[in-house]
Design goal:
This protein is mainly α. The protein contains 3 helices and 2 strands; from the N terminus they run H-E-E-H-H. The structure holds zinc ion (ZN).
Length: 114
């Protein structure tokens, strides 16, 4: 019983740390590479979908800003343009809440293919 409780505490710590720090996330913004709570698009080739989540780093809203008329190729182009603008602006944090302590836009950008 004690072991189960200990594991539960460890798991809760893992989930909380992953949520706040972000680095344990397996989902990334296709524009800027910032870790997301859920995939931006479960299927990037789908005509519709998108998580409706707003990336706190580059401010794109998946399924809305990048709906692209349901055209996946146009969507990728839109991601590139959004990224170019964001980089040209100096990779600013656009979230409402403050950025994580380890916010490093140059490093997270390496996760996306340009
Ligand atoms: Zn982003």
């Amino acid at each position: 019983m004690l072991v189960v409780a200990a594991l539960a505490v460890i798991y809760a710590g893992f989930v909380l740390a992953g949520h706040h720090a972000g680095y344990m996330s397996t989902h990334y913004c296709p524009v800027c590479g910032f870790p997301l709570d859920e995939p931006a698009w479960v299927d990037p080739n789908a005509r519709g979908g998108g998580s409706q989540e707003i990336c706190p780093s580059c401010d794109i809203q998946f399924g809305y800003t990048d709906h692209a008329g349901g055209d996946p190729a146009r969507r990728r182009q839109l991601w590139r343009e959004w990224r170019e603008r964001w980089v040209a602006d100096g990779c600013p944090w656009r979230g409402v809440s403050p950025p994580p302590d380890d916010y490093d836009p140059k490093r997270q950008l390496r996760r996306v293919d340009s």
